[in-house]
Amino acid sequence: MSPEDVTPPPHAVVLEPYDPRWPALAAQETLRLRQALGANLILVEHFGSTAVPGLAAKPVIDLMLLVADQAALDRDRPMIEALGFEWYGEFGIPGRRFCTFTDADGVRRIHLHGYAANSPQVGRHLIFRDYLRTHPHEARAYEREKRRAAALHPRDSLAYHDEKDAWVSACEARALVWHADRPGN
After folding, report:
1. Chain centroid to CA 40
2. DSSP assignment of the chain
3. Closest alpha carbon to 96 in 122, 72, 127
4. Is residue 2 one of the residues assigned to a domain?
5. Could you tell me which of 69, 76, 77 has the C-alpha nearest to residue 95?
6. Is residue 13 part of a domain?
7. How much of the chain, in percent, has pLDDT values that exceed 90?
8. Which residue in 43, 81, 131, 141 has a CA-CA distance of 20 to 30 Å to 104?
9. Domain span including residue 127
């Protein structure tokens, strides 16, 4: 089955101060996903800005699903949709399955990023998260960039994402070097 690549509708960009409840919300959603997806689901990682303590963020929880079999995840699409998610295929990243959850009030709450456990995309996302967690000056710089991008695109999350992409790519490159230089890597 070839994954379609559909663009999700943009949503408003509202940055909120870090909320210590975000990890608990991620854990709660992880339980729902584990029950629905069963043995194919190897691990769920909370990543993105809501996973970096102290960092202002859109209050949208990013969860990475690591699965043993990507084709099985595609077959499980109806179960994910039954949980209230909308499926958008790869949405610009080869091998990813991207889904969104919007609450009854029309507020985007969760982004799912499904990858095969051996995907090269997995490491870069987690390294970037860990780098921001351990480099507060970079997290503060990222927050400034997020605020700049949000001021330019307050009603369009897609344009907001594109606006900050160059900064994120440069920081991600620094994070990958940092990770490579760590003992044991």
Report:
1. 20
2. -PPPB-PPPP-----B---TTHHHHHHHHHHHHHHHHGGGEEEEEEESGGGSTT--B-S-EEEEEEES-HHHHHHTHHHHHHTTEEE-BTTTSTT-EEEEEE-TTS-EEEEEEEEETT-HHHHHHHHHHHHHHH-HHHHHHHHHHHHHHHHH-TT-HHHHHHHHHHHHHHHHHHHHHHHHHSTT-
3. 122
4. no
5. 69
6. no
7. 91
8. 43
9. 22-181
Tens-place pLDDT, residues 39-61:
999 999 999 999 999 999 999 99
Place of tokens 């943009």: 10
Say which residues have a Cβ less than 8 Å from residue 128's Cβ, sequence separation at least 6: 47, 168, 171, 172, 175
Domain with 72 in it: what CATH number?
3.30.460.10
Tens digit of pLDDT for each residue in 171-181?
999 999 999 99
C-alpha to C-alpha distance for 39 and 89, rounded to whole angstroms: 21
Torsion of CA 172, 51, 132, 166, to 10 degrees: 30
Q: How far apart are CA 78 and CA 97, in angstroms?
A: 13
Using only C-alpha atoms, the chain has a radius of gyration, in whole angstroms, of: 16
